[in-house]
Design brief:
303 residues, mainly alpha, DNA polymerase, domain 1, hpI Integrase, Chain A, two-stranded antiparallel sheet, DNA binding
Length: 303
């Protein structure tokens, strides 16, 4: 079987029928030609064992799991094409498992850095450090509420103003899948929200808005991008690398710090609004560290 000709036919189909971009076609060509070169007799005539040996080889060569998965995906599509066109009577990739990519650990912040960030926000809100006290009060309310609740940034910026008009320790938030969940509010977050609410009332354009953090855009509330920019600026002024912080990092800090201090994984799942516990299990490394510390601190035979 002429593998080079089969690869060209596959790439022509991807371009003409599926409108694949030039970069995509280049990536397919590189992956398929590499596989064909490494497999004796060429890729088009390869058996499942040949492809498995090739995958083992690229793993041994140090390719990342994501790269291995991408190469296998290209090979799978190539053989589906050959089978559909009657150029092969079988698909040798049908029994192959995709390489496990693994999940990167979430970026987070230490409790000390989080404290410095919140202290800086409170300082600027109280002392008008930058000459724009309403903006400083808004930012202070945003970071206090985010760290107190672990909300997704889209949930945070779209909060209704009624959240700040009550003195409740909990409120309901509507998250992914239109599901509601109860989240806690710390005393500091409630105080910061009330201070921002008072300042917000002095801005005529915002006074009647149904949102806690209103803005002039189409959505009616502060954009995620503006909050992320302001948060990075706050971090820099607090002496924390702006590259290490984002609203999502603060959400992860909320979860990690709860677990470090004894919270149950299921409780954190509910607070974060994860539909499946498997999503929350990215934090199991925190639990493992806590268990090691527990044994080291309390086991009678620990050094």
């Amino acid at each position: 079987m002429n593998s080079a000709a089969r690869i060209e036919a596959f790439l022509e189909m991807m371009s003409a029928e599926r409108g694949a971009a030039e970069n995509t076609l280049h990536s397919y060509r590189r992956d398929l030609e590499d596989a064909s070169q490494q497999i004796g007799g060429g890729l088009a005539g390869a058996a499942a064992a040949d492809i498995r040996a090739y995958l083992d080889d690229i793993a041994a060569r140090g390719f990342a799991p994501t790269s291995q998965a991408r190469k296998l995906s290209a090979i799978r599509q190539f053989f589906k094409f050959l089978y559909a066109e009657g150029l092969r009577g079988d698909d040798p990739t049908g029994t192959l498992d995709s390489p496990k990519k693994g999940r990167p650990l979430p970026k987070t912040m230490s409790e000390a850095d989080t404290g410095r960030l919140l202290d800086r926000a409170a300082l600027e809100a109280g002392d008008d450090v930058n000459g724009d006290r309403p903006a400083a009060l808004r930012l202070h309310a945003l970071v206090e509420v985010l760290y107190a609740t672990g909300l997704r940034v889209s949930e945070l910026v779209g909060l209704p103003v009624t959240v700040a008009q009550r003195d409740d320790r909990f409120f309901m938030v509507r998250g992914k899948g239109d599901k509601e969940r109860m989240v806690p509010l710390s005393a500091k977050a409630r105080v910061a929200m009330r201070a921002w609410l008072a300042a917000r009332a002095t801005v005529p354009a915002f006074a009647d808005s149904p949102f806690l953090f209103p803005a002039a855009g189409d959505s009616g509330f502060l954009s995620r991008q503006v909050f992320a920019r302001d948060l990075k600026g706050l971090a820099a002024r607090a002496g924390i690398s702006a590259a290490k912080i984002s609203p999502h990092v603060l959400r992860h800090a909320f979860a990690s710090h709860l677990l470090q201090n004894g919270a149950d994984l299921r409780a954190v799942q509910q607070l974060l609004g994860h539909a499946d516990i498997s999503t929350t299990q990215i934090y199991t490394h925190v639990l493992e560290e806590r268990l090691v510390r527990l044994v080291n601190d309390h086991h009678p035979l620990a050094d």
